[in-house]
Structures are given as C-alpha cells and as structure tokens.
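Chapter review: from sequence to fold.
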Amino acid sequence: MDLIDRYLAAIERRLPADKADDIVAEIRDDLLTRQEVREEALGRSLGKDELAALIKEMGHPLVLASRYRTQQYLIGPDAFPFFIATLRIVAIFLALAFAIDAASGVVFGHVDPIRAIARAGANILSSAMLAFGTVAAIFYALERTGFPAEHLAKWRPQDLPEVKDKQPSPWGSAFEVAVGIYAILWWCGVVPLPYYSNVKGLTLTADPVWTAIWWPVLALMVARLIYNVVQWLRPRWKAVRAVLSVATAVGGVALLGLVYRAGHWISASGPTIPAHQLAELDQAVNLGIRWAIVVVGVIWVIQCLKELWETMTARARGPGMRVAA
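The token string follows.
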C-alpha cells in the first residue's frame, strides 16, 4: 500500500484543494479494484514490481491530475486552429521582411549576398521569437476569457461562400494580408524598407510630394487591408467587398493622378558623381516610377471594373437562379 499511497499523494498535490479528497478517493477505489481483478486472475497477491506496473498503467500523476482540472491546455482545441492560422500569417510576414532585408542589403548596402542573408537571418530570428511569444500570449489570454467558444457558437453555415464563387487560397489570402500589414508598418516607419540609398556616393531622396499625400496613402492602405481581410474571412459580404474595392480603386487612381502630375518623385545626388551621370540616373529612376504609376493605375481600374461586373451579374441572377453548367 505504501506505493499506492505515494502515488495518490503525488496526484493530490496537483489537484484543486476543494476537490482533492473526492478525486483521490475515486482514483483509490479505481486502483484497488484493478488490483483485486489482477490478483484474482493470477490467484495470488501482486508483487512490488507488478503493483508498480499496474500503477504505471494508470498514468503519470501530473497527467492524471490534469484530467480533473478545468484548464488542461495553454491553447485549447477550439482556439488552436486559429492560433495556427495566425502563425501562418506571421510566418509569411517574417519571410517577406527577411527577403526585403536581405535584398536591401545587397542592392542598397552593397553587401555580398551571403553576408546579407546571414545578417537578415540574425535580425529575423529575434523578431520571430518575439512574434511567436506575442501570438501565444494573446491566444492564451483569449482562451482564459472563453472567447474561442463564444466565437464558434456564433458561427453560421449561411456565411459560407457560394460554391460557384472563386475564392483565393488560404495562403494567398494570408500573403495579401501580410503584405498589407507590412506596407502599413513601412509607411509608418516601423519596419525598414529604404526609400533612399547611399551606394558609392549616390543618394536617392524622396520628393516633397510623398510627404503631402502621407495621410491619404495611409488611409488607402488601411482600406485595402480591410478589403483583403473581408475577402478572406467574410467572403459572402459581396456588397462590402464591392464598396471597398471601388472605393480603394477610385481613391488609388485619384492619388496616382496627383502623384503623376508632380512629374518628379525621386532626386538623385552625389558629390563624387559627375553631373551628367547624375542627370541620367535621375531621369532613369523617375521614368521607371512614371511607368509604375501608369501600370498600377491600369491594374486598379481593371480590378474595380471586374468587381462591379461580378456584383451586378450576381444581383441580376438573383439568389434563386442557377447558373447553367
């Protein structure tokens, strides 16, 4: 009995004080019943090693005690799928930051690729540990408040997307959300993505036009991020998606028009570079920006028209009509 008492005492130390006596009594009865059944089958009393094997079958004291506690998980089974999905977004975000950091080191910092990758890896490691810890802490807090269960209780099958509706893959949606978050953080100066460089005496400096449109651009980025989140998590909110798509497209085209009218966006300078080379570099950089503005504007207009067309055709078909195969 000494071995059984030690086992039960180890379990009792890990139980809530107000319930320990009843739980230990229940486990004792179960264990003694198993011992009696085993001894009847053998026709003799159990030896010390046989009793130890029987107790081991019951499970480790820490594991067995945890079954009687109200909270058994750091992050419970209801919240765990959302935890993993969030970590995927964070992983994509970190991968994007790593790629940008390494590429910036090669292109702007004039560092060889191996050193750039090693430096970016060292920088991203601490960020990854901090990000994982932060996400885990948030979900731990949510788990203790009962939010996952409440959220799942409000889930409605009616919110599922139509079979005929084309939906982006989860990875594609996560990538768009991650890029949107990164763009906002960069625009706010939280994460590095240099808009000027100093390589071999060359300096590229943003013109005042970018400062003048800082707030409108931030608002546009936030609206686009909301659109991507809605498209991912609420695919049936077609009207909201259409409004956000049209609003961001119109706002983006308007901003691009203002930026395009400036005619000059980046200034090149460098005391060690001849004037004619600076002029050529300045012209080449701004020509590239000009074409980028035109291409982005065309893409936004096409996306806007596509969203409007899909919304209009969906309303014309009506909820009760079927699309012919």
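Two observations follow directly from the output. Confidence is low (pLDDT under 50) at residues 193-199, 319-325. The longest helix spans residues 275-317.
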